Amino acid sequence: MRYTGVGATDEHARLIMDSYRKWTGKSLLDEGADSGNEFERLFRSPVVVLSHGTEPDPILNFGNRAALALWEMDWETFTRTPSRLTAEPMIREKRETFLKNVSDNGYVDNYTSIRISSTGRRFYIIETTVWNLADENGIVRGQAAAFREHRWIDETPVRG
Questions:
Q1: Are 112 and 91 in contact (CB under 8 A)?
Q2: Which top CATH class is 6-109+130-146?
Q3: How do 60-63 and 107-116 pair as beta strands?
């Protein structure tokens, strides 16, 4: 698999990890993770990590192996997908409001919502952290999300 584009660089992986530490005060990856280049470390992490840029309709620009598997896409498809398409249509308006809240506050923790894979499979993302990607000059370059847990939703309606 070829990895090309903004998210396929050590620089972008560092931006994701450094911004996470800036906002949360924690390390995104386990401190004892194997050494190696940042892109490969982040790509191989069992924590689901994805990011999008700052376009008017933000495009996903990074998804690690766990994210690609969950959304059932290859790298090339994933990194051409508008991030809004990862949410169900009825959730998209709420998602936009949520992302504005992240923009205004830097990050949000413990977010749970429903997402949808490329094949239409629905799942909960659980205790997700979403944060702004800010470079060393404080310029926001996009947003990222990470979570360790998800749960597939069967086809029976979820009652709350």
A1: no
A2: alpha beta
A3: unpaired
